[in-house]
Structures are given as C-alpha cells and as structure tokens.
Amino acid sequence: MSERAGFQAPPRWWTPWVRWITRFELALGAVALVIMFVLVLVQAAQRYLPVGGWSWTGELSRFSLVWLTFTVAGVLVTTDSHIALQLVDSLKKPLVVRAVRVFACATVAVIGVGFAVEAWELVSTQGDLRSPSLRMPLAVLYFFPFLGFVSTAVRGAVAAVVFAVRGVPAAAEPTEVHA
C-alpha cells in the first residue's frame, strides 16, 4: 500500500463520525448563510415600504455572519481549505514540507484551544447580557464560535498527527485529512 493510499484511509470507526460532524457543521453554516441572505433582502425591501424598519433584521444578519464564519472553520482545516502558503508545498525536501505542515497544524490546534477557552468564558459569563434588538442572551451568540473553535482545535491536532505519521500528500492532489 502506498503512502498516499495510507493517508486517505483513516480508521474505519472514525470516518462516519467525521462525516456526520462535518455535515452538521456545514448545515449550521448553510442555515446561517440563508438567514443572513434573507434578512439582508428584507432590509433592502424595507427601504421601499411605507412601514418602519425592523432593527432586529440587521442584528440577526450580523450574528449569522459570525455563526457562519466560526462554525465552518473546522471543516476548512479538515479539507485543507484554510489560508495557507502553498510555496512550502513545492519545496523539494519532503521532510521540510512535513515539518512545516505539522507545525502549522499544531499551531492551528493550539490557537483553536485558546479561542475555545475564551469563547467558553464568554458563554459562561455573558448569559445575563442581551442583544439590543432581539433581546437574545449573548451566551447564545458566543456558543457557536465555541463549537467552531473546538472543532478547529481537534481537527488541527488530528491533521498534525496525520501529517507527522503519514506524511504530506502530493501537492497536485486535493488533501483531506479526515480530522
């Protein structure tokens, strides 16, 4: 079995969980995107209607942008779609490429843990505060970024281990680490 084939074959018990979690995160992101799109259209239509505008539409669309951004962050790590310097992948020394990719993924994981801790702090301490228009507890606002940061941290750590153990796949082929 080639190194590339081994890279694409995660443990069998892991794959269904990763797929389910990825689909869940993408579904949350899609719902946030649809909410944001519809509410921006409502805001635009309100300008031409004789009734007063609803202030909560702008607030909820901004919250949806936050939720969209952070709930799919872990998926970007798994599919290797996050911002990266691909110049490193074209280096001729596989050991250097592997070391840089492991370091990058480990850094993503550490930063994800730090942000998850801070997001949880906001979730646990901001429950009494409410948003101005919706009167939504701010703990709800911060819960979705918390989930996204946990996902990012776990997937970054798994990607670092996969790259360290199995190596980095060829740069020309799409990468999926099944984190």
Automatic annotation (TrEMBL):
GO biological process, one term: C4-dicarboxylate transport
Highest taxon in the source lineage: Bacteria
Any one Gene Ontology cellular component term annotated for this protein: plasma membrane
Transmembrane segment boundaries: 26-45, 65-88, 100-120, 140-165
Coiled-coil residues: none
A Pfam family of this chain: DctQ
Localization in the cell: Cell inner membrane
Membrane-topology descriptor: Multi-pass membrane protein
UniProt-recorded Gene Ontology molecular function terms: transmembrane transporter activity
Keywords carried by this UniProt record: Cell inner membrane, Cell membrane, Membrane, Transmembrane, Transmembrane helix, Transport
Residue span, Tripartite ATP-independent periplasmic transporters DctQ component domain: 36-161
Family membership noted in the UniProt record: Belongs to the TRAP transporter small permease family.
PANTHER family named among the record's database cross-references: 2,3-DIKETO-L-GULONATE TRAP TRANSPORTER SMALL PERMEASE PROTEIN YIAM
Protein name: TRAP-type C4-dicarboxylate transport system permease small subunit
Species annotation: Blastococcus colisei
